Amino acid sequence: MSKITTIKGFADLFPPESEVYSLMEETARDVFTRYGYRELRVPVLEHTELFARSIGAETDVVQKEMYTFPDRKGRSLTLRPEATAGMMRACIEHGLQEGVSKYFSHGPMFRYERPQKGRMRQFHQIDCECLGAHEPQADAEVIFMLMHFLGALGLSGLELNLNTLGCKACRPAYRELLTAYLQGLDQELRCEDCRRRVQTNPLRVLDCKNSGCRSLTENAPTMHDNVCPDCRDHFNVVRGLLEQGGQKFVLNHRLVRGLDYYMRTTFEVVSTNIGAQSSVAGGGRYDGLVAQLGGPDVPGIGFACGMERLAMLMNTTQERRQDFFLAVLDEKALDQAMLLACALRRDNKSGDVSFAAKSAKSQLRQAGKSGARHCLILGGDEFAKGSVLVKDMRTGEQKEILQEELIKALDSL
RNA sequence: GCGGAUGUAGCUCAGUUGGCAGAGCACCUGGUUGUGGCCCAGGUGGCCGUGGGUUCAAAUCCCAUCAUUCGCCCCA
């Protein structure tokens, strides 16, 4: 019989790693709530069209990375490759309130890519979306919040990259300008991919990691120098706010995001020491997206954090702590022991109880490994007296205590 | 989709020129009739990824295949 295994690019998370993910989720909730965000839970499966319309039909994500399949009635469904589209869909479907709405979410996303370090086919993101604010103060707040969150996870050594992508008024002109510039040095472009990109997505040439391409585009016109006055003013306010707030950042004119809906402010947080997949969070403004999905013309800005990548940066040494381990030395006492343990748990104590009467030595060993503060020993003698022997695992002191006084005794020890 | 590396015990990995399948950690039992960590003794645990080939003989050499992994692409 062949073994059934996980699907390629899908992973089981055991402790302590699973606990790191819980910690990230709790921290996110704690921090985001302070900024007025509330949780939105949306489905993992959506109509394919949602993603085609929001992310961009020409992007790699939509063209070759989605888990798309027909349901039993032939409708095309897709496992979400990112969170924003579904959250926008939900907001539109249930009617947006006037003013600003702030939502966060977290959960699994799916992309059919070749797995590698920090990249799974099922991966997890924490997302924040702020709708209804076109002002640059909203951009700055979102960035402050993201950095606050990453700081609360105890991460350091991260770099915030910032850029503006212009808007639908000024980006087309820049795109032409850049294309013309790139075609001027077409022969010298070293990498194959960039030759193709000049045609399909010229902005991506700026983002190429090939050092030859990078030096060739060193003097290319930048979006930043070619945005319209409105975009320039917007970006300057964002930069000014970050500076005043003491948030360091790097202006990176090569920062071009892969999803079509981004405009104006974009940002990305990178780490230098987790291998090739260095981007741990990214986001930006997407003012046209809600309208594009059939909703009102409401502006938006948000970001996504890659939990797998954050996990690589967090130290996973969380010690196990329990209040007790209940060792049972006599078969007669097994039932009573289990009931006693449950009573302790109802009284907010945490701990394990033996289901089988084994040697004192082996159970003390087990108690030690469980990290229990006290080992409660219930053998034939204690069973007869209705008591329990309480051993302090740190000092080794032990004391016999009647079972009905146990709860009070554990508190005072 | 393209390249490179690796598959041997639960985990991390040795395994020489082709010659009985190994270590450390973990786990279990005992040393102590009912007392952990340290120490000591013993023990469980393997289709050597899978299928074929060469050979008297294959974990080892050859072919295929699957899986994992690191890069590219792309993205969080």
Can you put this structure into words, describing what you see?
The structure is a single chain. The chain has 413 residues and is α+β, with helices and mostly antiparallel strands. The protein contains 15 helices and 16 strands. The protein has helices at 17-34, 48-55, 60-64, 84-93, 136-152, 171-184, 192-200, 211-216, 229-244, 289-292, 307-313, 334-346, 360-370, 380-385, 406-412, and strands at residues 38-39, 45-47, 67-70, 76-79, 101-110, 122-131, 158-164, 250-251, 263-271, 279-285, 300-306, 322-328, 351-353, 372-378, 387-392, 398-402. A hairpin with a 5-residue loop joins strand 3 and strand 4. Helix 1 runs antiparallel to helix 5 and helix 5 (136-152) runs parallel beside helix 9. The mean pLDDT is 90. It binds one RNA strand of 76 nucleotides through helix 3, strand 6, strand 10, strand 11 and helix 11.
Summarize the topology.
Layout: H1 17-34, E1 38-39, E2 45-47, H2 48-55, H3 60-64, E3 67-70, E4 76-79, H4 84-93, E5 101-110, E6 122-131, H5 136-152, E7 158-164, H6 171-184, H7 192-200, H8 211-216, H9 229-244, E8 250-251, E9 263-271, E10 279-285, H10 289-292, E11 300-306, H11 307-313, E12 322-328, H12 334-346, E13 351-353, H13 360-370, E14 372-378, H14 380-385, E15 387-392, E16 398-402, H15 406-412
Parallel strand pairs: 1-5, 7-8, 12-13, 12-14
Antiparallel strand pairs: 2-4, 3-4, 5-6, 6-11, 7-9, 9-10, 10-11, 14-15, 15-16
Helix pairs in contact: 1-5, 5-9
This protein binds one RNA strand of 76 nucleotides through helix 3, strand 6, strand 10, strand 11 and helix 11.
